[in-house]
Design brief:
The complex is a heterodimer. Chain A is α/β, with parallel strands linked by helices. Chain A has helices at about 20-25, 45, 95-100, 115-120, 130-145, 175-180, 185-190, 195-205; strands at about 5-15, 80, 105-110, 125-130, 150-155, 160, 165-170. Chain A folds into two domains: about 10-150, Aconitase, domain 4, CATH 3.20.19.10; about 180-210, no CATH class. Chain A is built from eight helices and seven strands; from the N terminus they run βααβαβαβαβββααα. In chain A, strands 4-3-2-1-5-6-7 form a seven-stranded mixed beta sheet. The longest helix of chain A has 14 residues, at about 195-205. Chain A is globular, with a radius of gyration of 20 Å. Chain B has helices spanning about 5-15, 40-50, 80-95, 110-120, 150-160, 185-195, 210-215, 215-225, 240-245, 255-265, 315-330, 355-365, 385-395, 395-405, 450-460, 465-470; strands at about 15-20, 25, 30-35, 60, 100, 125-130, 145, 160-165, 170-175, 205-210, 235, 280-285, 290-295, 300-305, 345-350, 375-380, 405, 430, 445-450. The radius of gyration of chain B is 22 Å and the shape is globular. In chain B, helix 6 (about 185-195) runs parallel beside helix 8, helix 12 (about 355-365) packs across helix 14 and helix 12 (about 355-365) runs parallel beside helix 15 (about 450-460). A five-stranded parallel beta sheet of chain B has the order 5-4-3-6-7, with helices on both faces. Chain B is an alpha/beta fold. The chains are: A alpha/beta, B alpha/beta. The interface between A and B is large, with 58 and 74 residues. The structure holds iron/sulfur cluster. The site of iron/sulfur cluster has 13 residues of chain B, from loops.
C-alpha cells in the first residue's frame, strides 16, 4: 500500500453536502476490472457537459466551466475540501481509486460516510475530519486566496494553514500505523492466523451448521 | 450489568481477537461476490500468491451488468463488451479458485441480496459481507451483515476475517400497526425522512416494534436493505418464528439434527429487554402514509398527498441550497402537489423490492387495468430466476404483460442502470429501488422512490396516486 507521512498540497473546495459515490464516480466506469485509470472520470457528471462512457478519450469532451476542478487556479490540487457526509452511497472502492488516480492524497470534511472513510485508508488516501467551523474557515480562506495550500502531517495529526493556524485531527492508531509504513492489511492480519484457526475450531463445535 | 443488544451478541460471537489499538478481528461466515467489486480483489490475491482461506464460505453470482432481456446466449450475448468482460472475469475467477457461482444461465442466478436468503446461504447469527452497500439487507435474519470495499473483499477471501471497530447501537422502534396498503418500503422511507441520510452514521440500527414484527421476511429485508440509506452500514432485526419459518427447508439451511440445534441457538438472537442503546428513535406506525421521494437524496421524501417543499420557507442556508438544487435537477416547482408529478417510466425491481411478495403486491394493483398511454416504459424485473419462476407459476407475469408492463430476466437492471435499462435525460421514474441520487438510473434521469404497490398504481395513472384510494376506485 502507498505510504502517507506528510504533504503540502494545493486545496480544491467542493462546496456541497452529501456528495455521494455515484457523483464521485458514476456507475458506467465500474465495469473496469482494473484499479487504475479512474481519475479522468472523477466527478464525471459534474465535470463534463456530456455523458461519459468507459474507455472514452476525455480530452475533447465539453467541460463544465462552473465545476471547481475545471478552474485554472485549482489545477494540480491534491487536497479536497468537502462538506458533511462526503462519500455516502455505495461501497464502491472505485471512489477512492478515482480520487487517488486524479491526484488527491487527502480529503477534509466535517463528516464522512463509514464505508467510504474505511476504503480511503486501504488506498493511501487520508480522510480528515475537522469541525464544522474549522471547515468553514478553510472554505473561506481557500476561496479568498489563489494558490492556497495546506500542510498535513500524519505523524503529528495536524493540518496547518498558510496563515499558521494548526488544526489537529483524530486517526485510529492501527490505520495510522499502516499508512505511515505503507503496510498491507492482509499481511498484518495473517500474523494472527493461529488465532483465526483456533476460533474456527471452537466455533465449529458450537455452531456446526455454519461449517456444513 | 445491562443486557446486550442483538448487535452486541453478534459482535461478541465473532470476535476472534481484540487488538492492542482497540480494533477487532471479526470472523466472517459468509461472503457473497458479484462481478463489479470482486475482480480487483481476485487480482490482488493472485499477485500476492495467496489462496482463499475458506472456499465454501463464498457464493457468487453476476447481477449488476447482466441484460434483463433474452439471455439465451449467456455471457456471449452481453452486447456491451466492457460488461461482458466483467461477467466473464467473475466466471473465470470462480472457476480458478473453486468458488460456487450461480452463472447467468443458472435458474438460481439473481441479485446477491435476493439469492443469499433465498438459498438459505444467509442464516440467523451469521456474519455476512459483500462488496455492496446493500448487504445490510441480510440483517433482517438476525445476522450481522454489511457492505465492504474491494480491498476488504480481498481481505475476507485471504483471511476469513475483517478488521473492525465496534459501531454504536441505535434502536428504531416502530410502534403499533401500519394501516392497509402501507409496506416495509413506506416504513423505511418514513424513518429516513425522519432521521436523515446521516442519521445512522457510525451505528448499527436495530429495527423493532410491533410494525416490524408484523412484517414478512420480504418486508423486513426491504427495511434493512435501506439502513445504509440512513447512513448505517448495519440494520438488524431480532429472530422470531417468522424468520425461522422462512429459513426452514432452503437448500443451504441446516437439516435434521443440525436444524434443531440451530433453531435452539437462534432463540437468543434478539436484544435483551434491558439492553442499552446509544440512540433511540420511536415512530408511530399509524402515522405512516405511502411515501414518495421528490428530491435527489432518500431523505427528501414525503407522504404522497403532500406538496413539494418551497426553499423560500427554509431558514437553514445549506438546507435551502440543497432543496433548490434538488428541485432544479428534478425539474419540479416549489409547492407543487406530488400527485401532479408526471411519469415517463416505472421500474419495479432491485434488491429492495423484487421478491415474490413485492411482485404480488404490484400485480394486485395492476390486475385488470392498463398502463397509462403517456408512459414510455414500465418494467418488472424479478430479483432472481427462482422468484421469476414462482411468479410465473402464480400467473403474475400474465397480469403484468396484460396490463402493458414488460416482464424481464433477473438482475439489478434499472436500479443503477449498468446494463441497457436506463432513464433518458430529464425523464421521471417511479422506482422501487433505493437510491434517487443524480444520474443513478441514467444520465440526467429523475428517480422517485416508492413501494411496489405505489409504483404499480403510478404506472396505471401516469402520475403519483395514493394506492389506498386507487385500489378502491
Ligand atoms: S439492485 Fe441496485 S442496490 Fe441492489 S445490489 Fe443491485 S445495484 Fe445495488
Amino acid at each position: 500500500m502507498k505510504q502517507f507521512t506528510s504533504m503540502n498540497g494545493l486545496v480544491a473546495p467542493l462546496d456541497r453536502a452529501n456528495v455521494d459515490t455515484d457523483m464521485i464516480i458514476p456507475k458506467q466506469f465500474l465495469k473496469s476490472i482494473k484499479r487504475t485509470g479512474f481519475g479522468k472520470n472523477l466527478f464525471d457528471e459534474l465535470r463534463y457537459m456530456d455523458e461519459g462512457q468507459p474507455d472514452q478519450d476525455c480530452d475533447n469532451r465539453p467541460l463544465n466551466p462552473d465545476f471547481v476542478l475545471n478552474q485554472a487556479r485549482y489545477q494540480g490540487a491534491s487536497v479536497l475540501l468537502a462538506r458533511q457526509n462526503f462519500g455516502c452511497g455505495s461501497s464502491r472502492e472505485h471512489a477512492p481509486w478515482a480520487l487517488d488516480d486524479f491526484g488527491f492524497r487527502s480529503v477534509i470534511a466535517p463528516s464522512f460516510a463509514d464505508i467510504f472513510f474505511n476504503n480511503c485508508f486501504k488506498n493511501g488516501l487520508l480522510p480528515i475530519v475537522l469541525t464544522e467551523s474549522e471547515v468553514d474557515q478553510l472554505f473561506s480562506e481557500v476561496e479568498a486566496s489563489e494558490g492556497y495550500a495546506l500542510a498535513i502531517d500524519l505523524e503529528q495529526q495536524t493540518v496547518t494553514t498558510p496563515g499558521g493556524d494548526v488544526f489537529t485531527f483524530e486517526v485510529d492508531a492501527f490505520r495510522k500505523h499502516c499508512l505511515l509504513n505503507g503496510l498491507d492489511d492482509i499481511g498484518v492480519t495473517l500474523e494472527d492466523a493461529d488465532a483465526i484457526r483456533s476460533y474456527e475450531e471452537e466455533r465449529r463445535k458450537a455452531a456446526p451448521w455454519l461449517f456444513a | 450489568m445491562a443486557g446486550k443488544t442483538l448487535y452486541d451478541k453478534l459482535w461478541d460471537a465473532h470476535e476472534v481477537k481484540r487488538r492492542a489499538d482497540g480494533s477487532s478481528l471479526i470472523y466472517i461466515d459468509r461472503q457473497l461476490l458479484h462481478e463489479v467489486t470482486s475482480p480487483q480483489a481476485f487480482e490482488g490475491l493472485r499477485l500476492a500468491g495467496r489462496a482463499p482461506w475458506r472456499i465454501d464460505a463464498n457464493l457468487a453470482t453476476p447481477d449488476h451488468n447482466v441484460p434483463t432481456t433474452d439471455r439465451k446466449e449467456g455471457v456471449a450475448g452481453i452486447e456491451d463488451p466492457v460488461s461482458r468482460i466483467q461477467v466473464q472475469t467473475l466466471d473465470e475467477n470462480c472457476e480458478e479458485f473453486g468458488i460456487t457461482e450461480f452463472k447467468m444461465l443458472d435458474q438460481r442466478q439473481g441479485i446477491v441480496h435476493v439469492i443469499g436468503p433465498e438459498q438459505g446461504a444467509t442464516l440467523p447469527g451469521m456474519t455476512v459481507v459483500c462488496g455492496d452497500s446493500h448487504t445490510s439487507t441480510h440483517g433482517a435474519f438476525g445476522a450481522l451483515a454489511h457492505g465492504i470495499g474491494t480491498s476488504e473483499v480481498e481481505h475476507v477471501l485471504a483471511t476469513q476475517t475483517l478488521v473492525q471497530k465496534k459501531m454504536k447501537n441505535m434502536l428504531v422502534k416502530v410502534n403499533g400497526s401500519v394501516g392497509p396498503g402501507i409496506t416495509g418500503k413506506d416504513i423505511v422511507l418514513a424513518v429516513i425522512g425522519r432521521i436523515g441520510t446521516a442519521g445512522g452514521n457510525g451505528c448499527a440500527i436495530e429495527f423493532a416494534g410491533q410494525a416490524i414484527e408484523e412484517l414478512s421476511m420480504e418486508g423486513r429485508m426491504t427495511v434493512c436493505n435501506m439502513a445504509i440509506e440512513a447512513g448505517a452500514r448495519v440494520g438488524v432485526i431480532g429472530v422470531d418464528q417468522t424468520t425461522i419459518d422462512y429459513v426452514k427447508g432452503r437448500p443451504y439451511a441446516p437439516k435434521g439434527d443440525l436444524w434443531d440445534k440451530a433453531v435452539a441457538a437462534w432463540q437468543d438472537l434478539k436484544s435483551d429487554p434491558d439492553a442499552h442503546f446509544d440512540k433511540v428513535v420511536e415512530i408511530n406506525a399509524a402515522d405512516i402514509a405511502p411515501q414518495v421521494t421528490w428530491g435527489t437524496s432518500p431523505e427528501m421524501v414525503l407522504p404522497v398527498h403532500e406538496t413539494v417543499p418551497n426553499p423560500e420557507r427554509i431558514d437553514d442556508a445549506v438546507k435551502k441550497e440543497g432543496v433548490e438544487r434538488a428541485l432544479q435537477y428534478m425539474g419540479l416547482k416549489a409547492d407543487m402537489p406530488i400527485s401532479e408529478i408526471k411519469l415517463d417510466r416505472v421500474f419495479i425491481g432491485s434488491c429492495t423490492n423484487s421478491r415474490i411478495e413485492d411482485l404480488r403486491q404490484a400485480a394486485q394493483v395492476v390486475k385488470g387495468r392498463k398502463v397509462a398511454a403517456s408512459l414510455k416504459q414500465a418494467l418488472v424485473v424479478p430479483g432472481s430466476g427462482l422468484v421469476k419462476a414462482q411468479a410465473e407459476q402464480e400467473g403474475l407475469d400474465k397480469v403484468f404483460t396484460d396490463a402493458g408492463l414488460e416482464w424481464r430476466e433477473p438482475g439489478c437492471s434499472m436500479c443503477l442502470a449498468m446494463n441497457a435499462d436506463k432513464l433518458g435525460q430529464g425523464e421521471h421514474c417511479a422506482s422501487t429501488s433505493n437510491r434517487n441520487f443524480e444520474g443513478r438510473q441514467g444520465f440526467g434521469g429523475r428517480t422517485h422512490l416508492v413501494s411496489p404497490a405505489m409504483a404499480a398504481a403510478a404506472a396505471v395513472a401516469g402520475h403519483f396516486v395514493d394506492v389506498r384510494e386507487f385500489v378502491k376506485s
